[in-house]
Specification:
- The protein has two domains: 163 residues, no CATH class; 138 residues, Heat Shock Protein 90 (2-Layer Sandwich), CATH 3.30.565.
- The protein is 62% helix and 10% strand.
- It has eleven helices and seven strands.
- A five-stranded mixed beta sheet has the order 1-3-4-6-5, with helices on one face. A two-stranded antiparallel sheet has the order 2-7.
Length: 411
């Protein structure tokens, strides 16, 4: 175990230098005028008071940088000063050293000095009275209390006030940091939500436009070209309308309650229109689309808006992926919901070997669907499976289960 190296005191504060010089000059003036507070004791020469004064002035230079060492030297200097006649300047500087030891010293010193000062005052009050049997001996205890208890407890009060101020400042900084972290997370979450909405709204229309524009270029048939251009125009108009709706919602700052968004948010009632559009977009690719709604209430129950929006977007993105990647065949959409249970969504599409997608994709669709389900506390699965009822091979199946029990209400 190595010994800790001795750390030299730092440079004294300029105010401490002023106090040391002022105390030394004041004490020399009082000594020159012969203004001592008491006669010398034990036959000591009065000039020892100047030694005590010099040592006490030196401790003023250490009051901030080495408060414990300053208090020890000041105590010895005070005892020497009292025995050699006593100078008011030395006593006043001692009170400042006691105050500084409590204020700038380590926590242990700050706790012990006030207690020791009280004990010394009690002893200095009781012992002289018990020995001298003179009430005037109480003045000695009063004097000891003035030069020890008062500065010590003043220092502890100011120290506690500074600690409380520092703690309040630290708490305010932590609160500001947490608020900034919350704001950053809110911005990130909002950006992710906007990205999902943009992808789900635009990808379906742009995929249809890309597929039919490719078909129009590849097939030299005026009729097929006119049909493809009609589908392209329809998807362009619908995509532009949805983009304008979303931009309007983002710019509308006068609707804090979100009523406009609630009115414009797609619901499960729009699945028929969504599949009709998919049938028009996928007719040239050999795809057919079937909707099977097995909800026990026949779709008459209003589910929470986030649940209906998530289910709608899952079906929309699954249909978009089918237009891009599915082999010719039937795409089946099933919606199921028992009263008090979760909302189940399943989309099945033919999964065959293709040289490449009909339209390019970013791969963000599955990520967005999974994020939507996880935000609502549901379950999500997507991937290839055996055909089962489809005898022609594998299928790509998307399954989602959305909790919708607690907020369900009748229309």
């Amino acid at each position: 175990m190595t010994a800790r190296p001795f750390a030299a005191p730092g440079r004294p504060h300029r105010h401490d230098v002023y106090m040391a010089v002022g105390g030394l000059l004041g004490g020399l003036l009082l000594s020159g005028l012969g203004l001592h507070s008491s006669p010398p004791l034990l036959g000591l020469p009065p000039w020892l008071g100047l030694v005590a004064l010099t040592v006490m002035s030196g401790t003023e230079l250490l009051r901030r940088t080495a408060p414990r060492a300053a208090l020890g030297l000041a105590t010895v200097a005070l005892a020497l000063d009292v025995c050699s006649g006593g100078l008011i300047a030395t006593i006043v500087m001692f009170t400042d050293i006691v105050y500084a030891a409590v204020l700038y010293g380590p926590p242990g010193t700050a706790r012990r000095v006030p207690v020791i000062s009280v004990l010394l005052t009690v002893v200095a009050t009781i012992v002289p009275v018990a020995i001298l049997h003179d009430p005037q001996a109480l003045l000695l205890g009063v004097g000891v209390g003035v030069i020890t208890v008062s500065p010590a407890w003043t220092g502890i009060i100011i120290r506690e006030h500074r600690n409380a101020t520092r703690a309040a400042r630290l708490e305010a900084e932590q609160t500001a940091l947490l608020a900034e972290m919350d704001r950053t997370q809110a911005i990130i979450a909002e950006r992710a939500r906007m990205a999902r909405e943009l992808h789900d709204m635009v990808a379906n229309h742009l995929s249809a436009i890309a597929i039919h524009s490719t078909a129009a270029q590849a097939i030299d048939d005026p009729g097929a070209t006119r049909e493809a251009l009609g589908v392209i125009r329809e998807n362009s108009v619908q995509g532009l309308a949805e983009m304008r709706r979303l931009i309007g919602l983002l710019r509308d700052a006068k609707d804090p309650g979100g009523t406009a968004e609630a009115q414009a948010t797609p619901t499960l009632d729009g699945l028929d229109a969504l599949l009709s559009q998919a049938r028009a977009n996928g007719a040239s690719s050999g795809l057919t689309f079937v909707l099977e709604d097995t909800r026990a209430d026949g779709g008459g129950a209003r589910l929470p808006a986030p649940v209906e929006l998530a289910a709608y977007r899952i079906v929309q993105e699954s249909l978009t992926n089918a237009l891009k990647h599915a082999a010719p065949g039937e795409v089946e959409v099933r919606i199921g919901h028992d009263r008090g249970g979760p909302l189940a969504v399943r989309v099945t599409s033919p999964f065959g070997d293709r040289p490449g997608p009909r339209a390019p994709g970013s791969g963000a669709g599955l990520i967005g669907m999974r994020e939507r389900i996880e935000l609502l506390g549901g379950r999500f699965e997507a991937g290839p499976e055996d055909g089962g009822e489809h005898a022609d091979g594998k299928v790509w199946r998307v399954r989602a289960s959305l909790p919708a029990r607690e907020e369900e209400e009748r229309r």
